[in-house]
Amino acid sequence: MNTAATQRGEDAPQPAHSGNDDWSQDERVRYARHFTLPEVGAAGQGRLRSSRVLIVGAGGLGSPVALYLAAAGVGTLGLVDFDTVDLSNLQRQILHGSAAVGTSKLESAAARIADLNPHVAVECFPERLTSDNAFDILRPFDIVVDGSDNFPTRYLINDACVLLGKPYVYGAIFRFEGQASLFAVDGGPCYRCLYAEPPPAELVPTCAEGGVLGVLPGIIGSIQALETIKWILELGDSLAGRLLLFDGLAMKLRELTVRKDPACPVCGEHPTVRELLDYQAFCGVGAEPGIGPMEVAVATLDKQLEQGMALQLVDVRERYEWDICRLPGARHIPLGQLQARLGELDSGLPIIAYCHTGLRSLRAAQILVGAGYRSLSLAGGVEAWAREIDPTMARY
Hints:
It is a single chain. The chain is α/β, with parallel strands linked by helices. It has two domains: 5-282, Rossmann fold; 295-388, 3-Layer(aba) Sandwich (Oxidized Rhodanese, domain 1). Helices cover 32% and strands 16% of the residues. The chain is built from 15 helices and 14 strands. Strands 1-4-3-2-5-6-7-8-9 form a nine-stranded mixed sheet, with helices on both faces. Strand 13, helix 14 and strand 14 form a beta-alpha-beta unit. Helix 4 crosses helix 10 (216-233). Residues 1-19 have low confidence and may be disordered.
């Protein structure tokens, strides 16, 4: 595991103390509205100052969580992220700005937090959270906030939190909807009690595939930040045992009761999961996905095109995606129009369907094969093409 890099403002105090009378003038002014609250006061602010919170992911959810926890005066924030800032992130990842595009998300996040509150220490972990490093990264922190966007990481965080006895602040978003909860506290349920099994990997669209309204992670992430602060201060009723569902289009909040499952393999009466697993395999995905029977690798397609093989390239993405980037010579037929436009295709030539990451094109290939065409899906889509074949291609 990489050693955590700690970044602080020049005048940042050590966050380990929790005294109520050693506040600087800057802190007294900065936290004046907290001091005014009887439920917080100097004692509560001291608890915030001595707390250590880990945020997994410095993206859509991690942005509001990090900003609000830093503003609230949480003493130490740990950030786990291995990615760089992309232009397409800025629609929702408000921790970063245009000047940070192409740079490390952790560098961008640490600089923003230092500017927002120099009294907060930031410990950066520039790596992917895995079964090999999760215990070492999570162990020094009091509570873990999930800002990830995939099922393997959610199950990994959950299991690590249960096994370490750490509270797990959960959040997830998709399109116009989001959900949040607090797991692994006070004998309450864990994430596996709610979702015992992950959905089939091929049925899980990414935010890039399905989209997400930019303001949505701000709403759900703020709820996660609030739950974290409440847990630190021991205030109010937490979301433990409850799943909060938010529908942005209907502007409705619903709540589901989540009960502890006695048969849960992690937190149940007779747990069978006593160490961290291979969560990529558990969720039906691989760290380096293989090429399925209806797929073609980007390297193979590149070689076929270089050799002049007669192929039909069909781009099944939406128009706005087509306008960002495309493969030369491709025909644009969005997936939703494919059935109605089959007559535009040459039944005598093989068809390579492609999309952003390979999910929609796999559906397209299945439709085409079912209609009597010879078709394969481009594994990894234009994202893999840009990464492995043409680094000048615009990515989103």
